[in-house]
Amino acid sequence: MKKSILIIVSLLAVVITINPAFAGKLVIKGSTTVLPIAQKAVEAYMREHPDVKISLSGGGSGNGIKAIIDGSTDIANASRFIKDKEVKLAHEKGVYPVPFAIAYDSIIPVVHPSNKTNNLTRDKLKAIYKGKIRNFKEIGGPDLKIVVISRDTSSGTYETWAKKVMKKERVTPRAQVMASNGAIVQTVSNNKHAMGYIGIGYLNRNVKPLKVDGIEGSEATTLNGTYPISRPLFMFTKGWPKGDTLNFINFMLNPKKGQKYVKEAGYVKLY
Fold first, then answer.
1. Beta 211-212 vs 75-78: how paired, if at all?
2. Residue 69 lies in a domain
3. Containing structural domain, residue 100
4. Which of 51, 107, 193, 211 is the most exposed place for a label (fewest CB within 10 A)?
């Protein structure tokens, strides 16, 4: 679970908008999984440093990394590590992304709260997402056809799901593709047939989390590595950070500051 990681960002657009006239300005883009943490941290940082204005937006880990490479962001949020091909492209452009792990996360399968399904093995999840299992009654649930909900391929959450559940096999083309964790929560909460997967910070009473291989996704099982679909979350900078970028990264890693907002956002602190 503890890996070295690069930090990249592709966030959902529009969270905190900033006036470019101020002397201190940061742009943060990338992962929608990291977004709730970043929102809270950015708001707190700007209260502490009113002279610094921060623009925060989303769009996925892949888009965040792309933005750090093309220079359109100072910090990229990413829910996955940077890929070899992205590192190569960055180096070709004279960019050297530096990763900072800022939190831990678990990806939780979710269904409608009325669904009686409670636990699935990774093999069953894979069969569902390949389209081989098509009804909840095949896995001990209600007699309902399964509507598979997945993330888009630019998502770091999708990348982790593809690696740890799908084992690089393709998700069924019948799957409905969503651009964010929030969109999956909304879709699953309104559809008794739906199954999706989200970062632990997006869990709420409107969806029902499932155990995986008999293990509940929680702070304890994420930190000790027993939950099978867990991962670190990152912020990437363009080279070693300086000035406001360095100050914000230090704020994010501070146990009494930024890490407090990791927990508030429902994720797992580093310490």
1. unpaired
2. yes
3. 11-104+231-264
4. 51
Q: What Cα–Cα distance (Å) separates residue 138 from each residue in 5, 62, 114, 216?
A: 39, 35, 17, 21
Global pTM?
0.83
Phi, psi torsion values for 115, nearest 5 degrees:
-75, 130
Give how far Cα 18 sits from Cα of 2, 28, 37, 53, 149, Å.
35, 11, 18, 6, 34
Distance CA 238, CA 74 (A): 7
Give the pLDDT score at 2.
Answer: 38
Amino acid of residue 244: D
* 85 φ, ψ (degrees, to nearest 5): -65, -30
pLDDT for residue 16 is more than 70: no
User: H or E element: which one contains 259?
Assistant: helix 258-264
Q: End-to-end CA distance of the chain: give it in Å, rounded.
A: 14
In sequence order, the 6+-apart residues with CB closer than 8 A to the CB of 203 are: 108, 110, 209, 266
